[in-house]
Amino acid sequence: MDLILSCVYLAPSKICQRFIFKVRELELLTSLLAVVVLLSVWQVLFVIAPVQGQAQRNQTNQTIIKTEGLNANSLDIQNIPLKKVNVGDIDVAYKKFGKGDPILLIQGLGGSMDSWEPSTLKELSSNHTVIIFNNRGVGNTTTGTKPFSVQQFANDTVGLLDGLKIQKADVMGHSMGSFIAQQLAITHREKVNRLILVSSMCGGKESIPPSPENLKLAKKFISSIVNNTLIEPQEIKTVIALSEGPTWIKLHPNILETIPTNPKDLKPSGITPNDYRQHFNAVQIWESTNWSGVCSQLPNISKPTLVITGTEDGSISAANSLIIAEKIPGAWIVQIPAAGHSLMDQYPDKFNKILQTFLTTTS
């Protein structure tokens, strides 16, 4: 697998200069750390982008990992004991496993803690204590009485860490989860050790919102799920194709044929239609351009940060990740060619190697 390590721009002058190094294996990236350190003097942001290799989907349905308190015993990830902790007006459901420093994973819109890529959980649990949980209104986490918003989700997340007596953790968020992670790093910076933002944007006027056409289609898609309103099968396929990216669809042409075309079959499990709508509304507010967003606050983040995106993400433009990386001092920016919004599931091996490289070479 070839990689390209390249300069995006020089922050002080905003003049782009490119430094390109081809590497045969990702593991060899660590040998370039001297180069990275040298270039970071000029506040260079980097792109670490695989340029070859076919799309691979990990077909593993079960991952065996060691859980806390069980020593030699091992359990299927789905059978790790679910626990709850009271956080304000809600009870947060979570699972905790692995060994090492804590890393907290925050899911996206309506996502369940059990929907993380199994191989990623296995990799992380080998050298981290992994905490996965459900946001309010999802699964066994209660809805509560407070309005849904990214800020409220961030407050819930801090409450979870406090309830678990975790002073500081590495934090990784995907999509809406990355919005929450940014808010967490801004308003509760003492809780974040390192920050990993996947398929992200910083919201507001400085971000690139979804196109009007895509937003209209997304709203229709959500309405069909929540209100059981009519949506054409081809429109459903278009929404899924936007998320996966054209190259992935081309490499996996049969994937669209397996997608349900009845809105009743599209409803995510473990979340009520009303709570799903509230999640969607929170995302819409973040993505809208009629507020300031958090982009201007990102330079205050001093924690090591990895920003990773798919170049063919049709849900959140990859350019948004470049905006974030430009604003966070010393941030790593990774673009995976031909990957979409679901890049962790599409290219788990590449994602895991990049993630482990970041975690083992920063502190």
Report on this model:
- The structure is a single chain.
- The protein has 363 residues and is an alpha/beta fold.
- Among the domains are: 3-50, no CATH class; 64-208 and 286-303, Alpha/Beta hydrolase fold, catalytic domain (Rossmann fold, 3-Layer(aba) Sandwich), CATH 3.40.50.
- 33% of the residues lie in helices and 20% in strands.
- The protein contains 11 helices and 13 strands.
- The chain has helices spanning 33-40, 118-125, 150-163, 176-187, 212-227, 233-244, 246-251, 273-287, 319-327, 343-346, 348-361, and strands spanning 3-10, 21-23, 44-50, 64-66, 74-76, 83-87, 90-98, 101-106, 128-133, 169-174, 192-198, 305-310, 332-336.
- Strands 2-1-3-13-12-11-10-8-9-7-6 form an 11-stranded mixed sheet, with helices on both faces.
- Strand 4 (64-66) and strand 5 (74-76) form a beta hairpin.
- Helix 2 runs parallel beside helix 11 and helix 3 packs across helix 4 (176-187).
- The model is unreliable at 1-75 (pLDDT under 50).
